[in-house]
Design brief:
12 strands, single chain, binds calcium ion, about 140 residues, mainly beta
Length: about 140
Amino acid sequence: MPKGCAQIVPKICQEYQNISNDIDLLALGRTAKSALWENDGRGSFRRLDQTFDSGTRMAAGDIDLDGKKDLIIGFAVWLNRGGGRFENAQTISPGMASALELVDIDGDGDLDLLGAELDRTTGKANLLLFLNTLRRS
Ligand SMILES: [Ca+2]
Ligand SMILES: [Ca+2]
Ligand SMILES: [Ca+2]
């Protein structure tokens, strides 16, 4: 688990820095919906109204380069529209991610998605690379 991450049974939580430049929590549901909890900066968290599909892995980064951090949950892309609202822009693979990383693989200035999914029939992990087409290298 990443640094600063706590366990909320039965959900996994991971740190996510979002609206007010403090550390918010994304509670990932393995079968239930995932939810975002905003840190009020005074030690309390408020659950936002919007829910997300279930997923066991997430990544955060500014995918569309608008200055607001977006989310990948599973292989679903959620663009941050501000005010705690996220738009499901794309689901790029039906698979269940076992690892996700947003990184500018091709060096063109936008974040690309590197993922891994477990192939349950072979027991091997498939490495998946999705290039962000916002900027073309
Ligand atoms: Ca963004
Ligand atoms: Ca890129
Ligand atoms: Ca690109």
